Amino acid sequence: MRKIKDIDDILARAAEILQGYGLKVAVERERTRLGPREIDAFMRIGTGDAERLLIAEVKPALTPIHLAQALERKDKGTLLVARYVAPGIAEKLRMNKIPYLDLAGNVWLQDRNVLLWVEGRKRPAQGDEAKTLETFNPAGLQLIFALLTNPDWVACTTRQLAELTRLANGTVAAGLRGLEAQGFILRAAPRAKRRMRNLRVLLDKWTEGYLQRLRGRYFLGYYTHLGADRDWWRDIDPVRHIAVLGGEPAAAELTGYLTPGEITLYAKMNPAKLIADKRLQFDPGGKVVIRKRFWHFDVPNWQNERFAPPLLIYADLMGTGDARCVETAAKIRDQYLVRLFED
Q1: Which end of the chain, N or C, is more open, meaning fewer C-beta atoms within 10 Å of its C-beta?
Q2: 212 lies in some domain
Q3: d(Cα 175, Cα 173) in Å, to the nearest integer?
Q4: Is the pLDDT of residue 269 over 90?
Q5: 250 within a domain of the structure (yes/no)
Q6: In the sheet where 107-110 sits, what is the strand order?
Q7: Same structural domain for residues 172 and 94?
């Protein structure tokens, strides 16, 4: 089996898989745009005389953030093509009638003329695919979070930024070099001040990295609230409880668009007082999740001291894979994060 080197290889393998299932496939490879959206290719898929034209969107690794973006678009005319689609993501795509295919042979594709549904194929060997860039390791993700939350900090010296983020000088220096190499930081001259760019792309990459590599590191436990009051979380005191609301409850209060199913709390210190005051009981199946706060700075122009930074609220919503939460995440992005894209 030949190695998968680029989008052309992935599309060729995808076409081979569909042909192996008895479909006629033609790939029209071009990079163009539909509004703000970049297109990888078009695929003509058919049986007999019937044919369907789909946009092929290639994702070497299909992650929860890509799922959330697909749910937000509600685009049933796009075939998501990936090396592998995990069963949980595949199920949510099927529920929302979004076509997908992976190089293990798992596929769901439905229209008036065909229903192709294959599942249970195991993840293909990764071979010598490139490892995740060091820029987006856990410490690097914390640095990026600080820069996205405080974009002016990019002009600080390495030492100043290390003090602000409480990260090691070497970590900050490596992270800045990586961001500059990938086009997210720009300098007009070698000694000129840095400025950030391509922040819409960086927002997506940070969200993906946070959900995969950072969020789990700060997990403290799942709990159940023992009282009868469903709105017990609304009077969390950031001073007394040293905790703030994140995810669904924060978004519910900020937008009025969501009834939270899971209550996310970020605690700065030991949450014992919070647990006692709010009658929380440890429960692996509970709907209250407590995470440790990983940022150590205030958010400029953010007066809502009861809530986590909007970037974190957005990311946690995108990670749910729930269509209503994804719609709410878009509202958070458009209301509180749009300034990031004005570069």
Answers
A1: N
A2: no
A3: 5
A4: no
A5: yes
A6: 24-34, 37-47, 50-59, 78-82, 100-102, 107-110, 115-118
A7: no
Tokens 């403290």 -> residue: 220
pLDDT for residue 131: 38
Q: Is the pLDDT of residue 93 over 50?
A: yes
Whether residue 223 sits in one domain with residue 189: no
Residue 190 has pLDDT above 80, yes or no: no
DSSP symbol at 210: I
Residue 209 lies in a domain: no
Q: Of 124, 77, 122, 114, which Cα lies nearest the Cα of 97?
A: 77
For residue 62, what pLDDT band results from cuts at 50, 70 and 90? confident
300: amino acid identity, one letter: P
- Confidence (pTM): 0.70
Give the DSSP H/E element, type plus range, for residue 325.
helix 323-332
278-296 core/surface letters (b: 16 or more CB in 10 A; e: else)? bebeeeeebebbbbebbbe
Question: What is the amino acid identity at position 315?
Answer: A
Domain that holds residue 27: 7-118
- In this prediction, residue 127 carries a pLDDT of 45
Dihedral angle of Cα 146, 147, 153, 154, to the nearest 10 degrees? 140
